[in-house]
Structures are given as structure tokens and as C-alpha cells.
Amino acid sequence: MAAPLLAFLLLSSCASLPLVGGKEPRTIVIRNRSGSDIDTVTLREAGSGSPAARYGSISPVPKGVSQEYVRPTNPPSFPRTITIEWVDNEGKTHARDLALSKALRSATGSREEALVFEIGPFEDVLVFIENNHH
Q: What count of other Cβ atoms lies within 10 Å of the Cβ of residue 20?
């Protein structure tokens, strides 16, 4: 009876630990497939409006274009859930919370890897690891 409770407590306590340690890709790609130009894209920790919790910001990202952002050496680990926020060419702000666990599970930390955030039509956002992005 105590084992399931202990397992639950251990899993709960890991919520704030880094997700994959040093295997996270240093390159982030923002791909605009929305059909319109985007002025600015910002990645930040979900639930945090603080600019200090940002993981990168790119501007502009014209329609049909992919922009790369290379994270600094030894960047902070990604949180389990990240908010991608973008401002379109009409000044309207859009935001989506995305879980990174599934995408980062396949990350190896290779220089050829990138963490891709693909903004599609209807405000859909896909997140995945892409190899050989150069």
C-alpha cells in the first residue's frame, strides 16, 4: 500500500527537475507556416509572464520562413511546459502552452539537432526534434 504512495510522491517531486539534462538541442527553429507574417515569437516558461523566464525571442518571422536561434552555452534547462507567444503582423498576440516531454525524449544533444516550433494555420503549433537542420 505504501509503495504506490511513495511512487506518486517521487514522481510529484520531479516536476521541477530538468527534463533531459544535457541532451537538449542548442538550436531552436521557429517555422512560420501560418500563412501570414509574424512580427515576434517568444518562448517562455508556461505560467510565467516574467521576461527573465524567457528561452529565446526571434523577430521577424515572415510567412513561409524558418528562423534559427542558437541558445548560449550551458543554457537553463527547458521546463516541462513552455509557452510560445507570437505577435502577428496586425499586432494581435497569440499564445500556446506546449508540453516538451515527448519531443525532447528523442533528443540526443547532437549539433545537427534542432527543437522546432512550427506555427501553422488556425494557430496550431507543432513541436518536434529535427535532425540535419543545416
A: 17
Q: How many residues does the chain have?
A: 134
CA distance 26 to 90: 31
Residue ranges per structural domain of the chain: 19-130
Number of DSSP helices (H) and strands (E) in the chain, helices first: 2, 8
Q: Per CATH, the architecture of 19-130 is what? A: Sandwich (2.60)
Contact 38, 124 (CB under 8 A): no
Q: Which residue type does 132 have?
A: N
SS3 track for 16-66: HCCCCHHHCCCEEEEEECCCCCEEEEEEEECCCCCHHHEEEEECCECCCCE
pLDDT in the model for residue 6:
32
Q: What is the residue type of 49?
A: G
The mean per-residue pLDDT over the stretch 31-40 comes to 95
Question: What phi, psi does 91 have (nearest 5°)?
Answer: 90, 5
Model pLDDT for residues 108-118, shown as the tens digit of each residue: 888 899 999 99
Q: What is the pLDDT of residue 51?
A: 60
Which residues is 114 bridged to in the sheet?
27, 130
